[in-house]
Write a structure and sequence with these properties.
Length: 172
């Protein structure tokens, strides 16, 4: 899958940098969590409750769980897209699937599952506000183990296909 500049509004593109490598010349495993956080904050910002809202004290949420499935190493200079897709919404939680796809060949190199918990003023889990629930409806949804990046299907489950061919298009 060639993604190029056709990434969607809930996707970010990164290029592997020298200081993100381990001693074997691969991207260090912790870096994928940093990229997933960047992508989440970008997606939440596009929905109106990003880092600016957190810093202003308007909203509070924390990551309660992160699960990373590594499939293929990445190396210096490779371009990757990290997408943010909605897996589900609970009373106070948001479940996300964040596939990391190599731009050159469309290979799913890593997948991050995250659970975000909304917090009340007391710092304890709180019911997601109705307006946040409504805004989350704008995120692409993982359906049947498949999410989309730039209009093409990518595997949404760790047991899914390794690579997917697609055409560029709009997220819908």
């Amino acid at each position: 899958m060639r993604i190029g500049s056709a990434i969607g509004p809930f996707d970010i593109e990164v290029t592997v940098r020298t200081y993100e490598l381990d001693v074997l010349g691969h991207t260090n495993n912790a870096v994928y969590l940093n990229w997933a956080e960047q992508a989440r904050l970008s997606a939440f910002g596009a929905l109106g409750f990003g880092l600016d809202s957190v810093l202003a004290g308007d909203v509070m949420y924390v990551i309660a769980r992160a699960e990373v499935d590594f499939r293929h190493p990445t190396h210096l200079g490779e371009r990757l897209v990290i997408a943010t897709r909605l897996e589900g919404v609970g009373t106070s939680s948001i479940r996300l699937w964040q596939p990391v796809v190599r731009c050159d060949d469309g290979e799913l190199v890593c997948g991050v599952r995250a659970v975000i918990v909304w917090l009340g003023e007391d710092g304890r889990p709180a019911r997601l506000p109705d307006d946040v629930r409504a805004r989350l409806g704008r995120l692409p949804v993982v359906e049947g183990g498949t999410a989309t990046v730039s209009g093409g299907a990518i595997p949404g489950e760790p047991g899914g296909a390794q690579a997917v061919e697609t055409t560029q298009g709009n997220d819908s």
